Amino acid sequence: MKFYLFGHGSIGSRHLKNLTELGHQETTSQAEADGFLICNPTAYHLETALKITRYNKPIFIEKPISHNLNGLDKLTGKILVGYCLHFDQSLKFFKQKIAGKKIIKVTIVCRSWLPDWHPDKDYRQSYSAKKDLGGGVLLDLSHEIDYALWFFGPVKKVTAKLQMAPELQIETESIADLNLDFVSGVNAKIYLSFASHKNERYCEVVTDSGTLRWDYQPNNDMYLAEIKHFIDVCQGKAKPLVTVSDGINILKVIEAAKNQ
């Protein structure tokens, strides 16, 4: 199969490498593409997707689906949103372990030091650091919001404290402290930061039968599984596991946090 790729940064290059290893190829002709991957800066996701819907081919949009909610109702067709943790085997196992238990407390943490993400580049020029490109810790680290909604369902109330990190010299928020109340009755505290010299990513759930913890371990297997799923979508063998509606619900939480 042939795929047209928008954006050849770190995540775009990873997806392309995985596609190639699976025996597929990149095409420079949009008309010849069997599917499209949108991996350019977040602020360009929607306009890019709308330009290619005329081909009526499946579209993969890297997370987040966009930088705000404007115009997302115009998206149609088979669209997979790139929240890759849905394909992480350890997180899926963790989800199964907490299912059916009475949940008392949920703590989700994802923190790191932005300059370390791509040491060979000036992080201050990256999309993560630019408001007009859709940067900021809420959008960039929205995987944690995604799996909280995946685990616990719709959110009824969001409270948040957002902070800048002067030492980073960037224009976007660098720290987000979220408190989510879910319709299911669960409360989750989510701490996101790319202004921390401590690098950790975990979810801790206290239940009536004990405390369970998941720690993220970097791996390519989930990205490979994600791309295999997108190929199945392109071949008509599967429906998108993470939908436009899911992407919108995540953005609604982010917008609620930003508007406080």
Written account of the structure:
The chain is α/β, with parallel strands linked by helices and 260 residues long. It has seven helices and eleven strands. It folds into two domains: 2-84 and 222-243, NAD(P)-binding Rossmann-like Domain (Rossmann fold), CATH 3.40.50.720; 89-215, Dihydrodipicolinate Reductase, domain 2 (2-Layer Sandwich), CATH 3.30.360. It has helices at 10-21, 45-52, 89-98, 137-140, 143-152, 221-234, 244-258; strands at 2-6, 25-26, 35-38, 59-62, 79-82, 103-113, 155-163, 175-182, 187-193, 195-207, 210-215. The strands form two sheets. A six-stranded mixed β-sheet has the order 7-8-9-6-10-11. Strands 2-1-3-4-5 form a five-stranded parallel β-sheet, with helices on both faces. The longest helix is centred in the C-terminal third of the chain and has 15 residues, at 244-258. Residues 96-213 form the GFO/IDH/MocA-like oxidoreductase domain. This is GFO/IDH/MocA-like oxidoreductase domain-containing protein.
Radius of gyration: 18 Å
What count of domains describes the coordinates?
Answer: 2
CATH topology of the largest domain: Dihydrodipicolinate Reductase, domain 2
Strand content: 25-35%
Largest sheet: 6 strands, mixed
Strand/helix succession: EHEEHEEHEHHEEEEEHH
The coarse overall form would be globular
Cross-sheet strand order for the largest sheet = 7-8-9-6-10-11
Distance between the termini: 46 Å
SS content category: alpha/beta
Return the CATH architecture of the largest domain. Answer: 2-Layer Sandwich
**How would you name the CATH homologous superfamily of the largest domain?**
Dihydrodipicolinate Reductase, domain 2
CATH class of the largest domain: Alpha Beta
Helix content, binned percent? 25-40%
Number of helices: 7
Give the low-pLDDT segments: none
Compute the average pLDDT: 97
Number of strands: 11
InterPro entries: GFO_IDH_MocA-like_dom, NAD(P)-bd_dom_sf
Domain GFO/IDH/MocA-like oxidoreductase: 96-213
Protein name: GFO/IDH/MocA-like oxidoreductase domain-containing protein
Keywords: Oxidoreductase
